[in-house]
Amino acid sequence: MAVVGRRDKAQQSLRSRIAIAIVTGLVIGCLIAFYFPHGLIISYPSVRTRRFGIPISSPNSSLYRRIIPKLKKQIRDLKYKLRLVEQGKDHAEKQFLVLGEQHKGGPFGTVKALRTNPTVIPDTLVNPRLAKILEEVAVEKELVVALANSNVKETLEVWFSSIKRVGTNNYLVIALDDHIVEFCKSNDVPVYKRDPDDGIDAVVYLQNPFNHLYRDSNVESMTDGHDNMTAYGYNDVFDEPAMGWARFAHTMRIWVFNSGFFYTRPTIASIELLDRVADRLARQENSWDQAVFNEELFFPPLPGYDGLLAAKRTMDFYMFMNSKVLFKTVRKDDKLKKLKPAIVHVNYHPDKLQRMKAVLEFYINGKRDALDAFPDGSE
Ligand SMILES: *[C@@H]1O[C@H](CO)[C@@H](O)[C@H](O)[C@H]1NC(C)=O
Ligand SMILES: *[C@@H]1O[C@H](CO)[C@@H](O)[C@H](O)[C@H]1NC(C)=O
C-alpha cells in the first residue's frame, strides 16, 4: 500500500472516503464486475458435480439468455475502464517506479522480486449504489462476497450465522431474487441485488478469514488438494522405458485451485484474469468455471498464446479446508482434530447443508462426534 500512500493527497482522501470496487463474482458462467480498491474474498458455488463436471443448469436456460447480454456489456465497460487505466500508464506503478526503492542485484540468496502488485485506481462511477454499500460494509477496503437465491435460503442462513459468529462484519450477500433481499434485511445482513442468476454457497466460517491472508499475490485461493504434495505441488515423473537412459521425464503437478473460495486483490492482473474467465465462459457454453479459472491462471505464455502473468498463492489447506480433507483425514486424526480452520468449504460432498451443520456442531458447539455419521465420500 506504500504506492497508494504516495498518491496525490487530495485525490487519495477523496478516494479513501469512497470505498469503491471491482468486486468480481463468478456464478455459473457469469461474471459480475464492480470496482474495489483493496481486495475481497469471493466464495461462490461449485455448480457442477465434481467428479464428472456435468452442468446442473443448462446453458440454454432463459437464465443464461438473460445474463449473457448484460455480461457482455459489463465486460465492455470493464475493458473500457482497463484501457483508461492503461492509458493513464498505471498511475500507481509509475509512481512506484519513480519513488520506490531502486533495486540492485545482490549476493546469492538475497535477491527478491517485488512481492506485491500495485492496486488499480478505483472508480465510484461504475456503480454508485454498490459503492455506497461497500463504503458502509468494507473493513480496510476488504469484504467477503457471497451469492444466493431463494433455493439456498437455508444454506445462506447457516453461512451468515457462521460468519457473524466469528465477528466478521465485512460481508455482503449478492441477492439474486427479491425474496433473499427481504430475508437478508429481516436478518440484518448487508445485501445488494443485481441481475437474476443462480447460486449457493457451501462455506462455513469458523474464524475471520481476513486474519489468515498473505495479501502478496493477485489471487489467493483454496486448493482442491488434500495433502502437502497435492495442495502445494510436486514432481510427477513420467516413465518412458523405450527412451533408455532418458526414460524419466519430470513433470510438475498441483491440484487445482478451488474457485469456490478465493481472495483477490484489485490489480490489473486480477482484472485480466476475471475478464478472461468471463469471456471464455460467455463464449464456450459447456465450459466449467473452475477449470477455466485454473487454466487461465496457470498455463504460461506459449507460442501463439499470451498467458496471464499473475502471481498466485495456495491457501493453507488446513486453514482453508475442503471437505475431503476434513472427512478423509482431519476427523480421524487426534492432532488435526484440535486445529480450528478459518473456513470449511463443503465442495466434495453433495449433502452440503447436513455437512455444514455438522461442521458447526463439531467446531463451534464442541460436539466431538458430530462428523462421525458421514461417509468419507458420497455413497
Ligand atoms: C442452444 O440453443 C441454440 C439456439 O436455440 C441451439 O442452436 C443449440 O443447439 C442449443 N444448445 C444446446 C446444448 O441445447
Ligand atoms: C507438510 O508440510 C508442513 C510444512 O512444510 C510440514 O510441517 C509437515 O510435516 C508436512 N507434512 C507431511 C505429512 O509431510
Structure notes:
Residues 203-356 form the Nucleotide-diphospho-sugar transferase domain. Keywords: Membrane, Transmembrane, Transmembrane helix. One of its GO terms (biological process) is root hair cell development. GO terms for molecular function: glycosyltransferase activity. This protein has 379 residues and is α/β, with parallel strands linked by helices. Among the domains are: 19-72, no CATH class; 128-200, no CATH class; 201-266 and 310-379, no CATH class. It contains twelve helices and 14 strands. The protein has helices at residues 2-5, 9-17, 62-87, 91-99, 128-137, 153-165, 178-186, 228-232, 268-283, 289-298, 323-329, 352-363; strands spanning 25-26, 31-32, 39-43, 142-148, 171-175, 191-193, 203-205, 219-223, 234-239, 248-253, 257-264, 312-314, 320-322, 343-345. The protein has a seven-stranded mixed beta sheet, sandwiched between helices. The protein has a three-stranded mixed beta sheet with strand order 7-14-13. It is globular. Residues 1-38 and 45-57 have low confidence and may be disordered. Bound molecules: 2-acetamido-2-deoxy-beta-D-glucopyranose (NAG) (2 copies).
In short:
The chain has helices at residues 2-5, 9-17, 62-87, 91-99, 128-137, 153-165, 178-186, 228-232, 268-283, 289-298, 323-329, 352-363, and strands spanning 25-26, 31-32, 39-43, 142-148, 171-175, 191-193, 203-205, 219-223, 234-239, 248-253, 257-264, 312-314, 320-322, 343-345. With 379 residues, the protein is α/β, with parallel strands linked by helices. A seven-stranded mixed β-sheet has the order 6-5-4-3-11-8-12, sandwiched between helices. A three-stranded mixed β-sheet has the order 7-14-13.
